[in-house]
Design goal:
The complex is a heterodimer.
Chain A lengths: L1 E8 L2 H5 L3 E6 L5 H11 L1 H8 L1 E2 L2 E2 L4 E4 L2 E2 H4 L11 E7 L6
Parallel strand pairs in A: 1-7
Antiparallel strand pairs in A: 1-2, 3-4, 5-6, 5-7
Chain B lengths: L1 E4 L2 E9 L8 E7 L2 E7 L12 H4 L15 E2 L14 E2 L2 H18 L4 E5 L4 H10 L3 E2 L3 H4 L4 H9 L1 E6 L6 E5 L11 H10 L5 E5 L5 H4 L3 E3 L6 H16 L4 H7 L5 E2 L15 E4 L4 E4 L13 E3 L2 E5 H9 L4 H8 L3 H14 L5 E4 L2 E4 L3 E5 L1 H4 L4 H14 L9 E6 L2 E3 L5 E3 L41 H8 L12 E5 L3 H4 L3 H9 L3 E6 L11 E4 L8 E8 L6 E6 L17 H12 L2 H11 L16 H13 L5 H6 L3 E3 L3 H4 L15 H15 L30 E6 L13 H9 L4 E4 L1 H6 L7 E6 L4 E8 L7 E5 L7 H4 L31 E7 L5
Parallel strand pairs in B: 7-8, 7-24, 10-11, 10-20, 11-12, 24-25, 25-26, 30-34, 31-33
Antiparallel strand pairs in B: 1-2, 2-3, 3-4, 5-6, 5-26, 9-21, 13-17, 14-15, 16-17, 18-19, 22-23, 27-28, 28-29, 30-35, 31-34, 32-33, 32-35
Helix pairs in contact in B: 2-18, 3-18, 3-19, 5-14, 8-11, 8-12, 8-14, 11-12
Classes of the chains: A alpha+beta, B alpha/beta.
Chain lengths: 97, 849
């Protein structure tokens, strides 16, 4: 099993009304699966903001997996990084916007 | 370094000027504990060891009698310009407790209700906002900065800005900007390179006003305000359709110019693979853009699966054909012969096909640049102006190659499935500056979540003007955020925002306002609590990740160091950054550990420097870790305090990335169609009145509201221009610069003698200006031939009314932003720019001033 600890930063905290969330996923789970699970767990308003389309997430959101930008990984269907724990940072625009 | 002089021992300290965004490296000379002189830092190549008049005079405000030296609390609940707030002095403890309690209350409800505004952000500002749960805004930049500039340079140059490669260029066409003259980011480097190479470069400035940049040019071409896109499209028409002066090889290989466009304006795609198709001249068939051995067609009409398709360049050529020199002349007032001559000059100077040897490598040589800025960006249809200027530079293959237009503040990029360049986001940053905001791929449109309705602007770099609209009309815009607290510093939004009347209404609507204030400016006048702010010469702020480079100069790292002590006693031994106050507030409000977590993530701190929960770190230690994580173990805070500069030569690939293989860039903006469709669908669903007619894939000229005046008596355009002796409101209270401005007519209205004669006015007359929206102001005329005869102009940053800025002598000059109209007609619903060419009538005040 993979334990993904998601830290929410920036205005997305106001939308989701929480700072952190723990999601437990099966070994080999993909980034898409993690974000789908987050969408399911956090209501329609958040799900609409999350938006998973094609290979990427809504560019207004910034996703980091163990410090690496999802934009560089570039594939929502890539498996989550190996290891029992994954640190995920999910932020909406902090600067600008 | 210490030097004994007759006046006592002197020492010199390297630091950074913070008066404008050019951020020059400077050296302060200190004698008997006082700064007595500022010079450019000879070791800093970014500004070539030079400082401008503003920077050299910067220390004159350290001992200002208007400085705030103790925390203050208002006792009068009534707020407004000129209304005495009834300030009372309170202790630091008291001020910190009051503000922390408010933060705690708002954080527990919805942290987005904290409106955090600054135009001079620090690294810690960003992680503090991330940890609290809000965004960091610089509201006023939406009114004076690069609404259209940044997206276009990110799009085609993976950079926030761009400047000509002056040592190698031969021709600079400056349209609506003042390269090398005002607070554009490359001021010092640009000015001195232009000076050194002046005889080898032709500089042509197209501007309604013979600005300071135009006065040093070879040629000034007066243009009717808001018609720049027509002029640029006229040049494009001549280059493509008549002169054949464009870089076909570059367009085929490095742009989407060969992509086939269908009848609906979208790319033609392979039905099976969804790959974009191009026309292969060799096989006379449509093939995927990335197939091997294609002989790309750039022009022509082809039948593909029964549909007519044209390469993007053909679509551009067809679209530009209507902009004949004669039509451009009708729109812009520029003679048709001049349009023809400039097209020929620019196209010839571009030297299509030429190469140059640099560091043993043969590179393309395109010594022609078109530069631009606010004159194009502060308009209705601003993004279309940007499309036109970027298209002109892209057509000649002159991006990031020797002699061409050089991007700076670079970011990383990736290749999309369509083979196109897209910048990669830095965590959490979606604004201008080092945080990339590529219009492509557009952000998915979702219901508004941000204070400025950013979710409804999928291709804009920011939408700050709409924060004002959303605050004043929240129901209309489905705005989810009603600011309950404003925390602002170094963003004089009451002055640089939507005008005095509107900003008064906005600021009165925010229940609790906290300002960090050097002096009580127009915005701090609304505060409930004020913390004394540091002068920029008193603060310690390493750039940390910020390397500055411009044109083909080396990369330089440096930052701010304190050269003077603040004239107040904070609750610490010595305050060196307002960030220390933010950290203290985070601690008292209970989110300090979140700040550390955000720092670990956003600063990418490796395990050795990671911030641990349960620990407490001083501001200095945070900077120490951030510095070491970027520059290495031996380059922490001690190194920074001692040395504070790193200069790194850049390889030829780093200096001229346009000369090397990379993803394709845009000449045709197909993504705009889908972005517009999404905005249209959502705003209809939510019943938000919204204009989506600006989502078009190609540049076109559309009139500004000022081109269709409400009545013929409004017979003049009014514009504003930046002067080289003031930077926004950062210099308004500097007595030396104020004196310079007054001597040069900073407070006067420029008008041509022809226009004055027509209206029976003369030099020195006091007049009333009235816009066709009914806004009024008074000022004194200065007649000059250095302005288009249909235009009146006032200087940006004139008309300050805060006592600290006027030094108790009352406002001088017209406050331009108070004449703006913030309605649907004047706002651009694509770039969020506000139209800043006004239509006015001017009449003499019989009673005088």
């Amino acid at each position: 099993m993979i334990e993904a600890r998601i830290h929410f930063f920036g205005p997305i905290r106001g939308l989701i009304r929480k700072k952190q969330q723990l999601v437990v996923l099966e070994e080999g789970a993909t980034v898409r699966r993690l974000l789908d699970e987050l969408g399911r767990a956090n209501g329609p308003e958040f799900r609409r903001y999350l938006v998973l389309e094609g290979a990427t997430v809504n560019p207004a959101l910034v996703v980091f997996l163990n410090g690496e930008s999802l934009d560089e990984i570039l594939d929502l269907d890539a498996p989550l990084p190996s290891g029992p724990r994954v640190d995920v940072m999910l932020a909406s625009p902090i600067l600008g916007g | 370094m210490k030097v004994a002089t007759a006046g006592g021992a002197e020492r010199q300290v390297r630091t950074m000027c913070r008066l404008c965004l050019n951020r020059c490296g400077i050296v302060a000379t200190i004698r008997n504990g006082k700064v007595v002189r500022i010079d450019g830092d000879a070791a800093n190549p970014y500004n070539q060891g030079k400082a401008c008049a503003k920077g050299r005079a910067g220390f004159y405000t350290i001992d200002s009698p208007y400085r705030v030296t103790r925390p203050l609390r208002r006792t009068n609940p009534r707020k407004g310009p000129g209304i005495d707030p009834g300030w009372e002095t309170i202790s630091w403890e008291n001020a910190l407790d009051i503000v922390a309690a408010k933060l705690k209350e708002i954080g527990a409800d919805d942290p987005r209700n904290l409106w955090r505004v600054t135009f001079d952000r620090s690294l810690l500002d960003e992680i503090w906002c991330a940890a609290f749960g809000t965004s960091l805004q610089s509201l006023s930049s939406g009114f004076f900065c690069g609404n259209a500039v940044h997206p276009l340079h990110f799009l085609n140059q993976f950079a926030a800005e761009a400047v000509p490669d002056v040592p190698l260029t031969r021709y600079i066409l400056s349209v609506g900007g003042q390269f090398g003259a005002v607070v554009h980011y490359d001021t010092m480097n640009g000015a001195f390179e232009l000076g050194r190479n002046r005889e080898r470069i032709k500089v042509v400035v197209v501007d309604p006003l013979c600005s300071h940049a135009a006065s040093m040019a070879d040629e000034w071409i007066p243009i009717r305000p808001g018609t720049d896109a027509a002029f640029l499209l006229g040049l494009i028409n001549l280059l493509v359709n008549e002169l054949g002066l464009y870089d076909a090889a570059f367009l085929k290989t490095f742009t989407n110019a060969p992509y086939l466009i269908g009848e609906n304006g979208h790319y033609l795609r392979d039905p099976a693979t969804r790959k974009v198709l191009v026309w292969d001249m060799a096989s006379q068939t449509a093939r995927p853009f990335d197939a091997d051995g294609i002989d790309f067609a750039l022009l022509g009409r082809y039948r593909v699966s029964g549909e007519e398709a044209r390469p993007a360049l053909q679509v551009i050529a067809d679209g530009a054909r209507g902009y004949t020199p004669e039509e451009v002349s009708r729109i812009s007032g520029i003679p048709a012969a001049t349009v023809r001559r400039i097209a020929q000059e620019f196209g010839t100077a571009a030297s299509i096909g030429a190469t140059i040897q640099i560091d043993g490598r043969e590179l393309p040589y395109r010594p022609a640049s078109v530069t631009w800025y606010r004159g194009l960006s502060s308009h209705k249809h601003a993004l279309m102006n940007g499309f036109a200027v970027m298209l002109l530079q892209t057509l000649i293959g002159g991006l990031d190659v020797p002699g061409g237009l050089m991007g700076y503040h670079r970011v990383k990029y990736r290749t999309t499935e369509d083979g196109l360049l897209a910048t990669i986001a830095h965590p959490g940053r979606v604004g201008s500056g080092p945080g990339p905001t590529n219009p492509y791929p557009p952000r998915t449109v979702t219901p508004p979540q941000s204070i400025d309705l950013f979710e409804l602007f999928p291709v804009a770099c920011y939408s700050r003007t709409f924060a004002v609209k959303a605050i004043l009309e929240p129901e209309k815009y489905h705005a989810p955020i009603r600011p309950k607290m404003l925390l602002q510093r170094r963003s004089n939004m009451a002055f640089t925002g939507a005008g005095r009347e509107i900003m008064t209404e906005v600021l009165r609507s925010v229940p609790f306002i906290v300002s960090f204030a050097l002096e009580i400016d127009e915005t701090a006048e609304f505060a409930d609590v004020i913390f004394p702010d540091l002068h920029y010469l008193e603060q310690l702020e390493p750039g940390v990740s910020g390397e500055y480079h411009t044109g083909s100069q080396p990369a330089t790292f440096y930052g701010s160091r304190p050269v003077s002590r603040p004239p107040f006693d904070p609750p610490w031994d010595r305050l060196v950054s307002h960030d220390e106050i933010l950290l203290e507030l985070a601690d008292r409000a209970g989110f300090l550990e979140d700040v550390y977590a955000a720092g670990n993530a956003m600063w990418k701190l490796p395990p050795a420097y990671a911030l641990k929960p349960g620990e407490r770190y001083s501001y200095g230690e945070l900077m120490n870790r951030a510095l070491k994580s970027v520059h290495g173990e031996d380059k922490g805070l001690e190194w920074y305090k001692k040395d504070a500069i790193l200069v790194k030569e850049r390889s030829v690939e780093e200096r001229y990335p346009g000369a090397f293989p990379k993803p394709r860039i845009h000449v045709y903006h197909e993504y705009m169609l889908e972005a517009g469709r999404q905005v249209d669908a959502l705003t209809r669903e939510l019943n938000i009145p919204w204009d989506t007619s600006g989502y078009v894939p190609l540049a076109e000229w559309r009139p500004c509201p000022a081109h269709e005046p409400k009545s013929p008596e409004f017979d003049l355009y009014m514009i504003t221009a930046k002067a080289p002796y003031h930077a926004l409101t950062a210099t308004g209270s500097n007595p030396l610069l104020r004196e310079v401005g007054l001597r040069l007519g900073y407070h006067e209205i420029a008008l041509s003698p022809e226009a004055a004669k027509r209206k029976g006015l003369k030099n020195g007359d006091w007049v009333e200006v009235e816009t066709d929206s009914g806004k009024k102001a008074q000022g004194r005329l200065k007649l000059t031939h250095a302005i288009h005869p249909e235009v009146a102009s006032v200087w940006a940053s004139a008309g300050r009314w805060a006592n600290s800025a006027t030094q108790g002598k009352g406002p001088l000059g017209i406050h331009f932003n108070s004449l703006l109209t913030l309605d649907d007609e004047h706002l651009d619903f694509v770039s969020a720019a506000i139209d800043s060419c006004l239509r006015v009538k001017i009449s003499k005040l019989e009673s005088g001033h």
